[in-house]
């Protein structure tokens, strides 16, 4: 059964640590109740405080966490325009904070030298769309947290995002990644829908379908 728990009350202030703390506590509270959580963004800045909640409740049995990230961008900036909690930095913060044991990123097709240096520093594996067939999914160990930025898909499928990057994943390729994950998916987020740029609610429908597929994978145990 799926329950909509509504929105976390935040100020949406730039770089707000109070907002991040509110997200962490809301997710940690559900994890302490034995609930599985799929979070709908919002931008990608929500993922760091979510992963922090998993780290803080690790004693509940989830164990070390592997993160699978689908995106056009690595989101590994040390900060963006002086904001270390921006949508461009969640995985840098989460890695620094020890929220995961490994990070694999699919669909990456734009990365600056700084972000590539960050990936090397943290041993992050970036898998471009053309390299999908060559990646051995059995190397990803569970439990797994799945984070999907909708701009990881090609703009022809998901135009309702803020940063279009042609050459992205197809919807079927994203479903194949979800279906191939070997360990249990213990949490997930779908982020970066921008309704003002959507066409006939196409991206909203894609996001809804992804949430449905993720929920099915989580309830099915893998």
Please tell me about this protein's structure.
- The chain has helices spanning 17-32, 47-56, 90-96, 113-122, 171-180, 202-219, and strands at residues 37-40, 66-70, 102-106, 125-127, 144-149, 185-191.
- It is α/β, with parallel strands linked by helices.
- It has a six-stranded parallel sheet with strand order 1-6-5-2-3-4, sandwiched between helices.
- Helix 1 (17-32) packs across helix 2, helix 2 (47-56) packs parallel to helix 3 (90-96) and helix 5 (171-180) packs parallel to helix 6.
- The chain is globular.
Note the run of SSEs as H and E.
Answer: HEHEHEHEEHEH
**Biggest sheet, open or closed, and with what strands and sense?**
6 strands, parallel
Q: Please state the oligomeric state of the protein chains shown.
A: single chain
Number of helices: 6
How many domains make up the coordinates? Answer: 1
The CATH architecture would be 3-Layer(aba) Sandwich
Average pLDDT reading: 94
Structural class: alpha/beta
The CATH H-level superfamily is Ureohydrolase domain
In short:
32% of the residues lie in helices and 14% in strands.
Question: SSE layout and pairings?
Answer:
Layout: H1 17-32, E1 37-40, H2 47-56, E2 66-70, H3 90-96, E3 102-106, H4 113-122, E4 125-127, E5 144-149, H5 171-180, E6 185-191, H6 202-219
Parallel strand pairs: 1-6, 2-3, 2-5, 3-4, 5-6
List descriptors.
single chain; alpha/beta; Arginase, Chain A; six-stranded parallel β-sheet; 6 helices; 14% strand
């Amino acid at each position: 059964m799926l329950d909509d728990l509504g929105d976390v009350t935040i100020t949406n202030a730039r770089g707000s640590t109070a907002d991040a703390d509110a997200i962490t506590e809301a997710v940690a509270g559900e994890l302490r109740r034995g609930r599985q959580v799929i979070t709908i963004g919002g931008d990608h800045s929500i993922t760091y405080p979510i992963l922090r909640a998993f780290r803080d409740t690790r004693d509940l049995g989830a164990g070390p966490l592997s993160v699978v990230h689908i995106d056009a961008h690595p989101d590994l900036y040390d900060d963006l325009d002086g904001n270390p909690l921006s949508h461009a930095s969640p995985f840098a913060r989460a890695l620094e904070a020890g929220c995961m044991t490994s990070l694999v990123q699919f669909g990456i097709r734009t990365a600056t030298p700084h972000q590539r240096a960050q990936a090397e520093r943290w041993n992050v594996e970036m898998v471009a769309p053309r390299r999908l067939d060559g990646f051995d999914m059995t190397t990803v160990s569970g439990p797994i947290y799945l984070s999907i930025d909708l701009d990881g898909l090609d703009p022809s499928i998901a135009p309702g995002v803020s940063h279009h990057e042609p050459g992205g994943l197809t919807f079927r390729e994203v479903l194949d990644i979800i279906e191939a994950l070997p360990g249990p998916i213990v949490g997930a987020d779908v982020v970066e829908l921008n309704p003002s740029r959507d066409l006939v609610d196409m991206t909203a429908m894609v996001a809804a379908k992804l949430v449905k597929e993720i929920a099915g994978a989580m309830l099915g145990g893998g």
